[in-house]
Write the C-alpha cells for this entry.
Amino acid sequence: MPTDRRPAYAPHADHDAVAALRERLTAHADERPDAPAVRWRTAAGWSGTTWRELAATARRVAARATAELPAGRAVVVATVNTGAHAAVLLGLLAAGFDVVLVEHDSSYLADPLSAVYAARPGAVVAAVDGPRPTATGELRRLAVEDLVAGAPQAEWPDRTPGAATVLQLTSGSTGEPRVAAVPLGAALRGGALYRDLFDLDERDTILAAVPLAHSFGFVGALCAAVLSGGTLALLVRFTGRGLVEGLDAGATALLATPFVYGLVPDLLHGRVRPDRLRVALCSGGPLTPAAAGAAGGRLGCPVRQIYGSTETGLIACQPGRSRPWPAEGVGGFVPGVRWRVEPAQGSEAGRLLVRTSTMFTGYVGRGGAEALRPDGYYDTGDLVDVDDAGDVTIVGRKATFINVGGRKVNPRRLERLIGELPGVRAVHVCGLPDARGNEEIHAVVELTPGTDPAAVVAGCRQRLTAYEVPHHVHAVDRLPRTALGKVAAPALRDLIAGRGAGAPGGTTATRRSTRT
C-alpha cells in the first residue's frame, strides 16, 4: 500500500542548497582543516587533498567562474575522478551554476545532436588534454588545471547565487538519452540519505569504484562525503590493483557496480579480508544472490543492493536489520519515498510509480516537464512486487539499454551514430550475455558492396567511447523485418546466438563477424 513518509534529516530547501553546500565545506575546513577530504589513485600512485585545501580550491573555482562565465548558462564538466575535478564540481555548484556531468572521454561531446547540447551550455570544463567539444557559437572551453591553479581563495563570491541544478545524462532506456534536471537540494538530500542509512561520518573512507559523473558516484559518494565529513577515495581509472589498494588503505565503505563485485572473489583470492570495510553498496544493475554472497565472503561484509535512478534518486536499499532481506529483493523503500503500484497488462506484478524527496524536476528540452504525472509521480517502468513487510522485488526492468560492466549503453543512440558511417545502409544494436553472463554489444549491419565490418569497427572507435564500441559487428545481406517493416529483434538475436539460420519471410541472412 502507498506510503507517505517524509525525511526528518533534510536540512535545507532547494532555494538555499547553495548556501548549505558552502556552509558544509567551510565547516569542514574550519573544524578539521588537515583531515583528508579526497584521495585519488593515478598510474603513479595515490594523491590527496585536505578539507582546507578542497574548500579553498572550490572557492577559487567559484570566484573565477563567477567572473569569467556567462550567468544563467550551464557548464559542462568532463569529469575525471580526481580531487581537482571534485573541487571544480563543488565550486561551480557553490557559485550557483547549473552543471552538466559527463565522463571525460564521453562521446557525447563530439556528437552535436546529443542530449548534452540540449542544455544549451555556455562553457565546457575539461582537463588540458581532455575532449574538445563539437559545437559552435559562444561555447567556451576552460581547463580544469587553470581553474584550480593560483592562490587560495579566502571567501566565496559576493554575488548571490541562484538555485544550482545538477544536469545528469540518463541511460535513455526508452529512447535516446536525455538530461535530467536534479536540483542541488535534491542531490544533497540524496547524500544525506546515504549518510544516515549507512551511518557514515568523519571516520569513514568512501571508496568509489564508479565515475563521479554518474548519479551513484556524485550523490552516493561525493555528496555523502561532503555531508558526512568522511574521506572520498577515487580511482581515476578502474583497475583491480587500484581497488585492492583502496581496500587495503582502510576503506570503510565501497560503492561499485555488479561487474566490479563479480571480480572481487578473484581479486581478493588468497588475501586477508579488508579489516575496516563495513559497508558495500551495489548499483548499476541487478546483482545475483550468488555473486553477492561470493563477493561478501571475500570482503567480510554483506553486499547491499541499491535501487534507484537518475530521475528519482534512491528508492529502496538494504540497510542493516535483524531479519535477513529476501534473496532476490532490492530492500525496502527509503524515508521520503511515496509510492504506488499500478496494474500492468499481462503481469501479476505492477508498475512502480514513485515520488521521492530526491526527485528531478523534468528533462531538459521540449516536453521535459511531461516526464512526471500531474500528481508529481514518476513512472519507473519497472514491474515490482511489494510484500506485506514493504520489501521490494523487481520482477521486470526497463531493459532496452545494454549494461557493459555497469555502464549503461543506449542502443538507439549507437544505431544513429553507426548508421552515419560510410557504407552502412541499416543497423540494429542489441546486447547479449557472453559465457560469463556479462552483456556484450552486438551491431548487425547492412553494408554497401566493398564495405567490411572491420571498417565499421574502426569508425566506431573514432566516434564512440571505448566501452560503447560494439564487441561484435555482424554483416548481413538484409536485416530481418516484420510485416510492418520493423526490425525483427528476436530473429536477429537468434541469428547472432547461432540458434537460427535465416530471417523472416524466407530471406537468408549471410553472417560475417569481426571481434572488437
Q: What stands out?
A: Residues 1-12, 499-512 have pLDDT under 50 and may be disordered. Residues 305 and 330 are 5 Å apart (CA to CA). The radius of gyration is 23 Å.
